[in-house]
## 1
Amino acid sequence: MAKIGFSLHPVAAAIRRAEKKLRLLRPKVSKADQKKIDVNLRALEKSYRLIRIQCPPRGLEEHPLFGQWFITNPK
């Protein structure tokens, strides 16, 4: 059987883009909305950290990102 490969890099990149947009938007809103944005930023940071922990590096020459690449052998 063939190996199946997939990557979490697009997910991690989307998380970083969302963080960047929220950080740019934060100073332009009211204090109450800033608190909501802070909660969302913490959640995004936590999810990014979980991806990084669950996907350890495999080798810098293969995939320079922090191991967000999986190859599985179907049964």
## 2
Amino acid sequence: MLYIDTVPLMPKDFKVQRLSDEFGQYLLVIKCAGCAHERRANPNLLAHICGWDAKLADLEKRLRCSKCGKKGSEIRAIEIQKPHGTLPAH
């Protein structure tokens, strides 16, 4: 008797430390520590200024809020969700 055991697809661990992680296929959420202003940005926007090897921790110290002008922000990366029914690109 031939028995094939299949493993269900597990969600992969999504962790971004540098702009180049995950091939830049994510979205950055940048939140000001002073006034809580929030902005979303693509990683290639910051990579043009700082380079793809820049660490998110270093960018948090470097970026300045466009509303209040203070430095110090929190940056987190979120996965880009594909719409349901989207076929894979081949």
